[in-house]
Specification:
The complex is a heterodimer. Chain A is of the alpha+beta class. Chain A has four helices and nine strands; from the N terminus they run βββαβββββααβα. In chain A, a hairpin with a 2-residue loop joins β2 and β3. By secondary structure, chain B is of the alpha/beta class. Chains A and B meet through loops of A and α16 of B.
Chain lengths: 125, 485
């Protein structure tokens, strides 16, 4: 399941953009590989993040993984809902299970990301 | 049938032992003990008869899976059978009644044992000095890295980072951070071994050390280890070896000869101490000559007059790791194990561990995927990807193995293998057991093809069925309360 209207990273994040804002989450493939997610540790609003650096951790039953933002900028919102109920990410990774919202510093980084077709190829769909 | 807890079995005024009538006058606690030291409420304890308690624990032990009951191929953990002789020797009253603060002259036997055990490890590791203090492998890592830190500080530059491969044990990066450095992960090569090119990029005066496990967590021997040591030593960095997999190397290769500067042994894995219930373990660290002055204090030394003593005169020591001298009972078991096997026997331990692992792999590799194909040593890592198309995951295979009477292998580790199944049979298993386990794995593969639901529901025959792991992680109930009745 790879929605057509998003961009993707090789680390299995998706990005939805609205003007200079990027909403970021993990893909259906990522949540299914991780399995049941039990904790998420999110950065503080106002943190400046740079692309390809880990900004959060996602703990699933079988392992703990870093969450990378593929886009540099300032964290302007985090998803409080998933802190209380991380299983939302498993249930609805592209919707209610979004992870952070970043105000983009370098929108040109979007060009580095994969198209839905390229991402499908990456995960062998 | 559900086992009742001792609390649920409790009946008011039931007792296990009739105590004799008191012969001395009753003492008023309130008059004799300060009020802040007295508890406000009754000390609640379950009230039971002796047979109830005995039956309770015997029943629990039959419901549990343990290595005295069945095969336990938990990769990286070396769940080998532990000879009962070692338990008897460790229970010798002269050992168990010895107070750790007794003066040296009253515990010459215990100190001699520690000294000789240390010498044995130095021979096995190819090193010149050792500490027996660390209480477990992870504390051994911390001790080894702390010594390396002292060494760099002594030379004037503590340095900034420690490199480890992406197949390393999770304790490695944690120990690096605890020792005050930045952990840097490098990707393994396509052969599953350390990638020399990736390592080369980090070779500078900020590099304090590399932590490596050999054989690595894929069970593959790092054949470039001497090259790695040379590269590191050329920039003054040190090579630390996580000895979790020493069960593959005993008497065959000495890590010190490969250029390893510090190495920890896991006595509870390789040297026959029961583990899996939380310890006690022991993680002695042997080191090359140039690190010896930084060893934790005290160390056990032998004077010219033939007396053993705890040597505190170690001005450059990294300090102490715990209140006393280490897990002494574990040391007795390890020493008994080493003496009863001898040099040839220890070598055979590793040869048979490697043989068993490769025999088991030969039976399974047509059925499951082996992502890294180099001939492994004492353990190997399969991938459960092959059953994914039936909607079955490695977790389901692991749960189903319990129905066949086997403990599951380590799963989902190392992280570089998708749907990993890490299998370590150890040398103490018979050919028949390995074949029965292989038959079970093959039968489960067939079940995955025809009856995925069966695997999703597994285990079916265990006292407790599949647990809700999310709930166990998020809302664990760790203490019994009346309200749970």
């Amino acid at each position: 399941m790879v929605p057509d209207d998003l961009r993707y990273s090789k680390e299995h994040e998706w990005v939805r953009t609205e003007r200079d804002i990027a909403i970021i989450g993990i893909t259906e493939y990522a949540q299914s590989e991780l399995g049941d997610i039990v904790f998420v540790d999110l950065p503080k609003v106002g943190t400046n993040v740079s692309a390809t650096k880990p900004v959060a951790t996602i703990e699933a039953v079988k392992a703990v993984s870093d969450f990378y933002t593929p886009i540099s900028g300032e964290i302007v919102e985090i998803n409080d809902l998933i802190i209380e109920e991380p299983s939302i990410i498993n249930r609805d990774p592209y919707g209610e299970g979004w992870i952070v919202i970043v105000k983009m510093d370098k929108p040109e980084e979007l060009d580095e990301l994969l198209s839905p077709e390229e991402y499908k190829e990456l995960i062998g769909e | 049938m559900k086992t009742k807890l001792l609390w649920e079995l409790s009946k008011e005024d039931r007792i296990g032992i009739q105590l004799p009538k008191r012969k001395v006058p009753e003492c008023n606690l309130k008059e004799n003990i300060q009020s802040l030291m007295l508890r406000d409420s009754d000390n609640e304890l379950p009230q039971l008869s002796e047979p109830q308690v005995i039956r309770h624990f015997i029943e629990l032990s039959t419901k549990n899976h343990h290595v005295d009951k069945g095969f336990y191929p938990l990769g990286s953990c070396t769940m080998k059978f532990n000879p009962k002789l070692n338990e008897r020797l460790a229970a010798n009253p002269g050992f168990i009644n010895l107070h750790p603060a007794a003066p040296d002259k009253l515990c010459q036997g215990a100190l001699e044992l520690m000294h000789k055990l240390g010498e044995a490890f130095c021979k096995i590791g190819g090193h010149t000095a050792i500490t027996l203090q660390p209480a477990a492998g992870a504390q051994g890592e911390f001790a080894g890295l702390s010594m390396i830190r002292r060494y760099h500080e002594y030379l004037g530059n503590p340095r900034k980072k420690v490199v480890m491969p992406d197949s390393s044990h999770g304790t490695n990066p944690a120990s690096i951070v605890f020792s005050g450095w930045q952990p840097v992960e490098i990707k393994s090569g396509s052969d599953g071994k350390i990638d020399l090119k990736a390592l080369e990029k980090h070779l500078d005066k900020d590099l304090a050390a590399v932590m490596i496990t050999n054989p690595n967590t894929l069970g593959i021997f790092e054949s470039n280890i001497k090259k790695v040591a040379e590269m590191l030593h050329s920039v003054g960095a040190q090579l630390y070896m996580d000895g979790a997999n020493m069960n593959a190397l005993l008497g065959i290769v000495r890590p010190g000869d490969l250029g390893i500067d510090a190495l920890h042994f896991n006595l509870h894995k390789t040297f026959s101490t029961p583990h899996g219930g939380g310890g006690p373990g022991a993680g002695p660290v042997s080191v090359a000559e140039h690190l010896a002055q930084f060893l934790p204090q005290p160390i056990v030394s032998l004077s010219d007059s033939g007396e053993y003593k705890l040597d505190w005169d170690r001005p450059d020591s990294m300090g102490m790791l715990q209140a006393f001298w280490g897990s002494f009972g574990v040391m007795v078991k390890a020493y008994a194990y080493i003496l009863s096997l001898g040099c040839d026997g220890l070598r055979r331990v590793s040869e048979d561990a490697v043989l068993n692992s490769n025999y088991l792999l030969s039976m399974l590799r047509d059925y499951y995927e082996l992502p890294y194909t180099e001939t492994p040593m004492h353990e190997f890592v399969l991938s459960g990807e092959v059953v994914k198309k039936y909607g079955v995951k490695t977790l389901d295979i692991a749960k189903r193995l319990l129905d066949y009477g086997f403990h599951a292998p380590t799963i989902y580790f190392p992280l570089i293998v998708h749907e990993a199944l890490m299998i370590e049979p150890t040398e103490t298993e018979s050919k028949e057991t390995l074949e029965e386990f292989a038959d079970a794995m093959i039968a489960i593969k067939k079940e995955a093809e025809t009856d995925a639901k069966l695997l999703h529901d597994a285990p079916l025959n265990t006292p407790i069925r599949r647990l809700d792991e999310v709930k166990a992680n998020r809302n664990p109930i760790l203490k019994w309360k009346d309200s749970l009745k």
